[in-house]
TrEMBL record:
Classification via Pfam families: RNA_pol_Rpc34
Similarity-based family: Belongs to the eukaryotic RPC34/RPC39 RNA polymerase subunit family.
Keyword Ubl conjugation: no
Locations listed in the record: Nucleus
Protein's name according to its UniProt entry: DNA-directed RNA polymerase III subunit rpc6-like
Classification via SUPFAM superfamilies: Winged helix' DNA-binding domain
UniProt keyword list: DNA-directed RNA polymerase, Nucleus, Transcription
InterPro entries hit by this protein: RNA_pol_Rpc34 (IPR007832), RNA_pol_Rpc34-like (IPR016049), WH-like_DNA-bd_sf (IPR036388), WH_DNA-bd_sf (IPR036390)
């Protein structure tokens, strides 16, 4: 939530109308980035029902509040104090432009993500590396990068695993989140499946405690050995 400097108060509350306006403004401010609907405002039974529209319009003219149409219901407005920015639940978040899901942008980012993994087809790529690229080159947030990766995992295009610290994971920390293509390409360009997709480490609740020579170790793990013998 982004918060701007609060404007100087302009309501004294000395006459009945201003007292009602101040009450509504205080309530709207208390809702911060989520704002308040007209239905919520009208729950205040101390204000005559016929006055709400006039009071809200007056607050808007004084530049104390603004109305934001919601992404899911364009005709349904939320009223926010001007010093607050709307929460992403109202606007749809970063993936929406003017209330419309930017499918083209999402697909473009997914394609770039796959290209990065394709260039590193012989080793895994860590979450930190993926985030560094997209945050720097594509100006995405870390959360947005994770959403793109999660989308690709759900599409079965990439696999998310946790490092074992061995073999192709040798340069990564044990337990670190990594990604690779779901189907690695062999020399003739054909996709080949593998037992990697079922590696037990990815689902192991003790992966963070696992280390070579430790009480929990890849060399003594029965499940890991079964996977190697697959």
């Amino acid at each position: 939530m982004s918060k701007r400097r609060r404007p100087e108060p302009k309501l004294t509350g000395r006459d009945p109308n201003e007292a009602h306006e101040k009450k509504l403004l205080d309530f709207i401010r208390s809702k911060q980035g989520t704002g308040a609907t007209m239905y919520e405002l009208k729950a205040d039974k101390t204000i005559p029902p016929t006055m709400f529209t006039r009071l809200v319009n007056s607050l808007k003219k004084k530049n104390l509040i603004k109305d934001i149409p919601t992404m899911t219901n364009k005709g349904h407005k939320h009223f926010l104090a001007v010093e607050f920015e709307p929460d992403k639940e109202l606007t749809g978040g970063e993936w929406y432009t003017d209330g419309t899901l930017d499918v083209s942008k999402i697909e473009d980012l997914k394609a770039k993500c796959v290209m990065i993994l394709e260039r590193h087809r012989h080793r895994v790529v860590t979450l930190d590396v993926m985030c560094t690229y997209f945050v720097k080159e594509e100006k995405l947030s870390e959360e947005q990068t994770k959403e793109i990766l999660k989308n690709l995992v759900l599409d079965n295009l990439i696999i998310e695993v946790k490092s074992t610290g061995m073999n192709e994971f040798a340069s990564t920390r044990i337990g670190e989140v990594c990604y690779r293509l779901a189907g690695k390409k062999s020399g003739n360009g054909e996709a080949r499946g593998g037992a990697f997709a079922s590696i037990p480490c990815g689902a192991c609740p003790h992966i963070g405690l696992c280390s070579p020579g430790g009480a929990i170790s890849p060399t003594t793990c029965v499940y890991f050995q079964k996977w190697l013998d697959f």
